[in-house]
Amino acid sequence: MFSRDRKWFLVIGIICTMIMTSILAWQPQMANAASPSASKVDAVLVVDVSNSMNTSDPGKIGNEAMKMFIDMLSTQNDKVGIVAYTDVVQREKALLNITSEADKQELKTFIDGLNRGAYTDTSVGVKEAIRILQDGKTAGHAPMIVMLADGNNDFNKTTGRTESQSDQDMAQAVAEAKNNGVPIYTIGLNADGKLNKNKLADIAQQTGGKSFITSSADDLPNILSEIFASNLKLKVVPLQSITANGDYQDVTVTVPNDSVLEANISIMSSKPVDARLIDPSGNTKPIPSSDVLLSKSKSYSLIKLLKPVAGDWKLQVKGVQQDQIDINLVFNYDLELKMDAPSAKSYKKGDAVQIRSYLTSNSQQLQDQELYANMNAVLKVKDLDSGTTNEVPLTNAGDSFTGSYTIPDEHDYELTVRAEEKSFYRETQPVTISAKAGATSGTNTGTTQPTKPAEKSKLLPLILLGLGLLVLLVAAYFIWKAVKKANRGFVGQIVLEIRDENTGEKTYPQYKKLNTFRGKFNLHQLLQLAPEFAGTDKVVFTPANQDRIIVRSTPEITIEKSGRAVDTGNGLELKNGDRLTIPLASVDKTILLEFISVNS
Asked: Are 432 and 381 in contact (CB under 8 A)?
């Protein structure tokens, strides 16, 4: 038997579905909402392997730069393909789903095996990259193309190929990339001064990518780092350039907050280097280890910190005396920037639009004031009639960015918030509003105009929309209750210890404060997303009354309390001082957990 509330909720849901279906049938364009930005990538690396590269890049630094780009990617399903071209496709590799370091090594071995040949036709490489993306694209991944070229086209005269044909093919490929939201990042290696810089810049500009020009192959690793960062809305943080003295030299690596998923430390040197790492608590971290990955090549070393703790890390670097060593840092964040929807779609000249924007992680709003402390935000307003763009500074409210914008003209406008600090930036999805005379207003003027015959075809969807809004107001109470539950906060902390069942040794207690979580979190998050504990994402915590928490898990995870296995499928309430034991047979380790309530 349904409860009274559930009956009402079911009826309202059916009515709302019928109304919205009718509206979308009349106005299908309303269904085309923008999707959130993706954190995973489908990348195709397009590299010129013509003989001219023997002069412009004799040391194959371009290959090393591409390998470093691959090493900077995560092992959580980013995808990479490769096209090596002259005037034809010499070799190619379809998009490979990266799930391990072995997958990265497969790509790097492919790059090492590339040979060079005669002639050049850049359009061939770009066309093939588009095809590879079409064949292997993944929903929710951000596509991109990175193209390296060192000069103009050089056709094989026996084929009859002309510059006009190549330009036509390139224009078609660029249009296809633009229509499918594929930015093309172009890198021009201008060693002989004959590079057509404008052509490469135009390809990047049309597709929303960036263009880089350099006369030295030695700059390529830094450029690939910049491209990696730009595509993920990150920033390269230059740490230090040092001249090696044969001893270990200290470099400070500051992890600004607990929202950092990865810290990529690139150490670029023409000669071998050794590195040591000390965490903020003063403990030496082995390189490599479970949460510190190491990739090395002949011109770089890349150290990747997985879910590093916030604070000042000490990197100690030892190189060959007088060798120049450049060190850069790129963070990766699990963050998005959201903006509250404006109160109406239509406004009048002189109206003030109130703006509020905030960071989210795992779809939960972040209220970590330490994270916001060093950030600035602006409202970017694009006048869709004149094409001009203005920026309005927003106020940092500690857990959000707020402000207002006064409509200057009877035009259409596109609103976007951009927030940034020195290591990353984020932008909201754009929102369009109208202030044109005659546009449907969010305010009732009290005057009723007779319906014109030409407007009758629009009347039904408007009536249905008004009815839908009334019904949705009735449903708002139930939705508000659900949202309130999903955003409910936690109190207290969880103390974690990990026991190695082979040696009997336990780690030092880790105190994890819970006040940064909203709605729910899982045990894997508390364990800093360590790959060996991946199964613990099935252990989920939600807040309960009286400063308690509820733990739930799937049957394959055994949870013990007071020495006995307990059923947590329907939820087990934990109060202050309760302890749980979670054995993980797959890794021969046991997690010891204690909940401490701050109010007890």
From this structure: no
